[in-house]
Amino acid sequence: MSGWTRKDLVGIVDLSAAEIGTVLDTAKSLQEISTRSIKKVPTLRGRTIANLFFEPSTRTRISFELAEKRLSADILNITGSTSSTAKGELLKDTIRNIESLKVDMVVIRHSCTGAPHRLAEALNVSVVNAGDGINEHPTQALLDMFTIREKKGRLKGLKVLFVGDILHSRVARSNIWGLTKMGASVVLCGPKTLLPPRIEELGVTVTTNLREAVKDADVINLLRIQKERQDQSFFPSIREYAIAYQINSEILKKAKPDVLIMHPGPVNRGIELSSEVADGPYSVILDQVTNGLAIRMAVLYLLSGAKSIESKKE
């Protein structure tokens, strides 16, 4: 656990390149657990982790639960519809009640931007951000970086292109923070209405021209149109969006021959990418899912020891 002293993981923006490297290296060492005949180690035996998912989730929730089971933790699963928040209780009070039951860690996904940060400040137990509003999704960015490094052998110097709904994407934000810190070149592409204003200030290149953007790309990470976070129409129609910004075999000819195709899911085939690309030889989408387990195991492992390093909040 050398180099890791944090109680919480609420965002990539606060992490140093060395800390990101620590998580990636730890995940690498934990990968083999899932290849054993008995896929379990006693690392977190006796620890209790509360999973609070106030937004729909499949990959992230299952990945965290499986990571916790791999490390032998006891698990408490709570959703918005089954918690007292549905009766009007404040989220902070809900968590404090859970904390009073002596849980050791809280994993939270919430539609409110900043919810994990506020909880981390208020609680003594470790808090892991599993996605908050349109802010960050740190473990997704970490598993994306892990996958790229695993396939390419490095992050520094690579051109990583993000295409799609950048404006509403917490995945894009966390990746921007992480990849730029690790020395990669990040390019963002999408309709002008889905590109955040002044995003160039984060050290990225921005364009609305997909054919120009894919030139010499080492990695293309596709982002779905997040209709659930949009209160207005940002382009004329899904069909027109697909015509202008879908990644298909023809567009891929302009990228590097060994380009990686990534997607955080869920995938909307025929919109952000064609089925032939999603299922093709360049796709590492399923590798991302597999690597997400190792990353989340690494995060839980590192945070489980952080409380002995950093004193609890008063």
Descriptive report:
The chain is an alpha/beta fold. The protein has helices spanning 17-30, 59-70, 91-99, 115-122, 138-152, 170-181, 210-213, 238-245, 249-252, 275-278, 285-306, and strands at 48-53, 74-79, 105-110, 126-132, 159-164, 185-189, 205-207, 219-223, 260-262. It folds into 2 domains: 17-137 and 290-306, Aspartate/ornithine carbamoyltransferase (Rossmann fold), CATH 3.40.50; 138-286, Rossmann fold (3-Layer(aba) Sandwich), CATH 3.40.50. The strands form 2 sheets. The protein has a 5-stranded parallel β-sheet. α1 crosses α5 (138-152) and α1 (17-30) crosses α11 (285-306). The two termini are 25 Å apart.
Tell me the layout of helices and strands.
Elements: H1 17-30, E1 48-53, H2 59-70, E2 74-79, H3 91-99, E3 105-110, H4 115-122, E4 126-132, H5 138-152, E5 159-164, H6 170-181, E6 185-189, E7 205-207, H7 210-213, E8 219-223, H8 238-245, H9 249-252, E9 260-262, H10 275-278, H11 285-306
Parallel strand pairs: 1-2, 1-3, 3-4, 5-6, 5-8, 6-7, 8-9
InterPro entries: Asp/Orn_carbamoyltranf_P-bd, Asp/Orn_carbamoylTrfase, Asp/Orn_carbamoylTrfase_sf, Asp_carbamoyltransf, Asp_carbamoyltransf_Asp/Orn-bd
GO biological process, one term: amino acid metabolic process
GO molecular function, one term: aspartate carbamoyltransferase activity
